[in-house]
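Quick question: what would this complex look like in 3D?
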Amino acid sequence: MKKLPTYCDQCYNGPDLFRAVVEDGVVHSLEPNETCEDISPAKGKICVKAYGLIQKLYSPHRIKAPLLRTNPRKGRDEDPGWKEISWDEALTLLADKIGKARGLDDAGFPKMAVIMGQAASPTAYSGTLPALLSAIGNIDYTLGAGEGIKCYHSEHLFCEYWHRCFIGAADTPRAKLVISFGHNTNASGGVAGVRRHAHARESGYKRIQVEPHLSASATTSDQWIPIKVKTDAPLMYALIHILTREMDRNKSCDLPFIKRRTSSPYLVGPRGWFIRDKKTKDPLVWDSAANMPRTHSSLDLKDAALEGEYVVSGIEVGADGEEWEHEEVSCKPSFQLMLDFMEEYTPEWAAEICDVSVETIRNLAAEIVEHAHVGETIELCGETLPYRPVAIILGKTVNNGPGGYQVSWARTIIAMLIGALEVPGATIGADQRMNRPHHDRWSSVWPGKDGFMKNFLNPTDKASWPASAQSRTRFEQLLPLVLNTGWSPFLGPTTLGWLTMNSEWSGLPRTTAPDVTLLYRANPALSMYFPEVMEEKLASLPFFACIGYTIDESNYFADLILPDHTDLEGLQLFRIGPSIHSECFWSSYGFAIRQAAVDPVVNSIDLTDFSTQMAERLGILEEYNAAINAGIVSGVRLKNEYVDNELDPATLHSKEEIWDRLCKSSTAALSEGSDEHGLDWFKEHGFYAVNYPEIRHFLHPVMVRWGLRYEIPYQENIRRVGEQLGRRLKENGMEWWDEQLEEYAAFPKCEDFSEMWNMECEMAGADPDDFQFWLINTRSMQYAWGSNAGMPLMAEAAKHVPGFKGALINKTVAQEMGLEEGDIMSIESSHAEVEARAVLREGVRPDTVVFTGQFGHWITPFAKDLGVPNMNTLIGPNKKMLDAGGSLSDVVKVRIQKA
Amino acid sequence: MVLNPESDIFVIDTKPLGHEELISSYLVKGSGGVALIDPGFPCSADTVLSGIEEAGVDPAQIKYLLLTHTHVDHSGGAGQILQKAENARIVTHKRGEYYLKNSGKITGGSRMVFGADLAGELGEAIDIPGERIETVGDGDTVDLGDKEFTVFRTPGHAGDHISLLEKSTGSLFTGDTACLQYPQLNHVPVPAGSPPVYRTDFIISELSRFKGQEVRHIMTPHYGESDLDIETFVESNIKSVKDTYETIKELFSQGLEFSQVIEKLRASILKDAGVTGERAPEFLTDTWLTIMLQVGLMGYMADILQYARDIRCFHTEAMLDATKR
């Protein structure tokens, strides 16, 4: 019997380390890996998805060899006529196609596109594929599946801009109060998330879950506030109103933090820009002690004012360098402007919108202040830090689509008010993806202009804004906040790329289809909005190759399917730690191995072998090996200051040799030369990790050391960037993004965003009153991200969790409609209709219906027989519903009747 | 212009935006060809070409364009020069090749350091085709007939940084391993710190390595030939690197913020240099020196805070201790 260490990274909370137990060449069980207990937030445990890997390995439905389509016609009703071919034939064909598809087409777009999904997890399985793709060059990654636009999108963009917070997390072990607006940690937080919250509950922390239904997380919370769908922003604005306008700010707020660590004292001029020193152009503040203006960084500044109105002279700098000089003009600090701005957002106003009582809203505000411990400190790694044990986390539907910017801003402002930003116990960033390096948030903090952190937005000034895009989503033109680094293409407005392919949509210009499309770990025909449109688009791709597991709804339209090794068959090194997603904070970081537990079960391929062979066939072996040497795989340079394990660029290297060198170079770098462990060592031990100082999980110490301020509350630069972007688009005749430009406001106005969905009905020619229910979606621990819809074990586990059989509907409402448990319901939006079984529940708002997970499969084996619909079918393409990041929300208004 | 009539080594003042004695480029004539070292900013290209002609060289005679590293103030003008030096090949460390082929990265770095306005004036780098680039590593040589350069890998200032020693004349082209030492600031050494990380440990060992070489002339980019012997040069530079580190720690421990530390350092340098506004150009003492100190401090702080572009081991206590406020 052998027990082989390996990892699972089927979701965005991994990798979780475990051992595969093998006897007589068969994996028969898995067990946790207790050797990583001290370093892993999951303590060496795995969730149900990992246990399903054995079924995944031995599934009779696996694609058993490369498949070539023989029927050129594509459609749901067309039999592809799959023919098994050899790997030689398959790779020859693919190399021929890719070889002809390098470079840009006549429209200026890359001829080759790659589609990846499943959040960040593909890179844990892709071997050296990133090196192959880098060597091919000029690839459009923007035609995505659901990641990015269906993720925590506004939070990704804005919060990473403000405090390197790709996803907002709670410092759960130290928090006393966590308020979750729709963040379903028990379903989406992985083993680490469930564990951390369970322990926190034992320690007496309080969790308040604010969402329209009693989710898996709400069931283990102290309080569930059943808010109306998409009204989170008004509630949060009301909290800000209470904290700043109803309570005594000297008691409710962390004024020293606000004064010193944010732009709250910066004076704003009559045109709404910061008023600046005429010579240095530094923003001015009012020094209350000296009764005069000073620059924010003046050595003589004693006490910057947060409130009041002051007469100063200076200049305002607007968009495109426009300047206005002022002599003795009246200005207010940004904080005062925020107080004024918040006047209308009373709890009474919010209560009407959110269907949450005024008393509940005021109690929530009181809880925030009670638990904030303003003024308290804590020792961490020998350093004294502020201790503010209140965190606010957001769910993805909350911060996608209309209102996404507002909730991201409001959450950050509430954190600012009590000083609970990037300090122990508080809201912290779990990860950064657009900024680099990914493995250490501190290392991306640089001093920029105006006393803020430097950000590297896509340019919007006239000289630098790109008049043409090289991505089909045009993210480099449309999305300043998404930057232009490795992850940026995945975070762009994917919807635009697909809907404009070979057609015009809502006045947007056409984009060309890529000559060659390669898909890996994605099922966009299901996971993207408007599946019927997606099927057409996939069918129209000139050459579509998929690295696939079973036949599914997307690769059904492929020309070529290439089966890769599953999790328990492939070989790869993958980074562990220091932090990811929402609860995975490691005390170490390093690398873990994924190794073949058994010989391949079918005629599949390891993606490192695939990549190396393709590189050779394409004549780019040198570039491929150079990319591996340069660290494009796993972020490890093969030559560092301690060792040189570089590959000979001209040689064809085996996967064992490649990964052996990566193992050695990674351990040498981490150990500063004292260790150099190769593949055999990793296969035995499973992982190698070194200490990651806990203090580096918090941005506060590095912000203090640089003397930087958070760029909140007043979004002067966001406004500037938005105005500049608007001008560039107009100058180039691109007037189809005007509504989205409205989002770029210094203070984002709040409204009842739920009304947008009534408007959507009206635009479709329907009466919103006829569509009286809100349909939303909730995450599934059993299925999320892992291509697990076809796993019987997942279905068996899921049947014990309410919601998987159909759609959750309020029990009283259902009974009034004559519906009983299990009855088939017709669920109809203004766009389409589906059917689902009724699952009657008390824990659902009467006006809300909930789908769990994402189904609607019509060809994936086993999943196609689950009889659970796809919510995406019901959502129609409507440009007005896109936010400035190109995201929609998983929300739609529906009417329901017994089928 | 000519540094040493016997050696056929010429210094060219690149005069970015007309400002003198900030960045020197070097033209080296050998029996087997001509080499130009570090052409400076894009906006300096015409000035450098004039200097080349003044030295009696046709750009077509240039065999090598040697780049100590790909920061814009050293290699930004390489593309423009290469257009005239049609027979030249760029020689750079292999980690620099990517940036030369993707000049937007160099221009992006320029914008980060100098701000959009000034970076725009200093010019935009242009892409260099891969077939005109040769890469070198530690110990490699570049042949000019009666002259030969030995390459020293010196990544303390930048990941692709090299220094070059011409054997026959004993001329060491330091690149930014050496401190800035402007004639107009009386050669007061100022460490050439730079983000992403200014590896002071590397800089010290690299400088120390120069001591063991047969160096008779020390050619610095900022600016010109040093009149010190190699031992004294290395010791003074190492002292400056170490002293600056301690000064930064001290200033932060006093609670000063980043921009305030810059101002203190600038004042201290001007005082050491014995320079007032009337005696030194305002662009140097105000704009340029402030920018150099900003990037220098960024590089130092990144080193102190253990910034990690690549995976590395972190040492908490040392880092926190160094930056106690």
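Answer marked as accepted. The mean pLDDT of chain B is 92.
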